[in-house]
Write a structure and sequence with these properties.
Elements lengths: L1 H12 L6 H8 L6 H9 L8 H12 L2 H6 L2 H4 L7 H20 L10 H13 L5 E7 L5 E9 L9 H10 L4 E7 L9 H17 L2 E8 L10 E3 L9
Parallel strand pairs: 3-4
Antiparallel strand pairs: 1-2, 1-3, 4-5
Helix pairs in contact: 3-4
C-alpha cells in the first residue's frame, strides 16, 4: 500500500501529458486525446521522447486513425520510437477494435435505411484497400440474414456476374438484398460502371423474385461532404 501511495504521489507531480493512465482512471477514456490513448498502449517512450510524444509523432506521420489502422507492423516501425513490440501492440489494438465492431452486429438488425446499411459495414470497409462488392441478405422483415463478399476489384475492370450475387441470396433463402461496395479513394459518388452493374442486377432480381433494395457506396466524410456513403436509390437510379 505504501508503495502505491508513493507512486501515486509521483504521478501527481508529473505533467498531465506524462500520466495518461492516471487521467483515464480518474476521468475515463473520453477525456484523453488519441495521442494520449496511444501512449497507454505504447507504455514508455524511446530516444528521449515520452509515450505521448511518440503518439503525436505517429499522428503527424499517418495523419489519422484511419491511416494508422491500415498500417502494417513494418510501416509503424519506420516511426522514431516504435520498435517491433510497440508496433505489434498497435496492430493488435486496431484489430480488436474492428472485431468488436463486428460483434456489435450479433443481433439481426433492421436494415431498412441507407444509414443502417452504412453503419453495419462502415468499420469493416474502412480498412479495405481495393473495391470489394458485398451483398447484404435480408429476410421478409428487412432484417439481416448475413452479408458476404462476392468479388474484389473495381467494378469497371471486374465482371460482376448476376449468378455470383444471387447464388448466395438463394442459398440463404433471402427475400431481398442490398448491394454495397467501398471506394478506397474516399469519394462515394457512383461511377458509370456502378450504375450499370446496379441496373443489371435489379433486372436479374426481378426475374428471380429477389428484390434489390439499394446499392450503397462507402467512402469517407470530409468537411465539404458530411456523409461517408451514397445511396443509389436516394440518387434516383432505382426509379422506373
Amino acid at each position: 500500500m505504501g508503495h502505491s501511495m508513493s507512486e501515486g504521489t509521483r504521478l501527481k507531480d508529473q505533467p498531465a501529458s506524462e500520466r495518461p493512465r492516471e487521467r483515464l482512471a480518474a476521468l475515463g477514456p473520453g477525456a484523453l486525446s488519441p495521442a494520449e490513448l496511444m501512449a497507454i498502449l505504447l507504455r514508455t517512450g524511446l530516444q528521449g521522447m515520452n509515450a505521448v510524444e511518440v503518439g503525436k509523432v505517429l499522428f503527424q506521420k499517418f495523419g489519422s486513425l484511419h491511416a494508422l489502422a491500415r498500417a502494417s507492423v513494418d510501416d509503424l516501425r519506420q516511426v522514431k520510437g516504435i520498435g517491433r513490440d510497440k508496433a505489434v501492440t498497435l496492430v493488435a489494438a486496431f484489430a480488436l477494435a474492428q472485431r468488436m465492431a463486428g460483434e456489435l452486429q450479433t443481433e439481426a438488425p433492421l436494415l431498412d435505411t441507407p444509414e443502417a446499411i452504412a453503419t453495419l459495414l462502415r468499420e469493416e470497409n474502412r480498412l479495405l484497400q481495393v473495391e470489394t462488392l458485398q451483398v447484404i441478405l435480408l429476410n421478409t422483415r428487412r432484417r439481416l440474414i448475413r452479408y458476404e463478399i462476392v468479388s474484389q476489384g473495381t467494378l469497371d475492370t471486374l465482371l460482376v456476374h448476376a449468378r455470383e450475387v444471387f447464388k448466395v441470396a438463394i442459398a440463404a433463402n433471402a427475400a431481398a438484398l442490398v448491394l454495397a461496395h467501398n471506394h478506397p479513394s474516399g469519394d462515394p459518388s457512383p461511377s458509370d460502371a456502378d450504375i450499370k452493374v446496379t441496373r443489371d442486377l435489379i433486372r436479374a432480381g426481378q426475374l428471380l423474385k429477389i428484390e434489390v433494395l439499394d446499392h450503397i457506396i462507402l467512402g469517407r466524410a470530409t468537411e465539404e461532404r458530411r456523409k461517408d456513403y451514397s445511396s443509389l436509390r436516394e440518387l434516383g437510379y432505382f426509379a422506373g
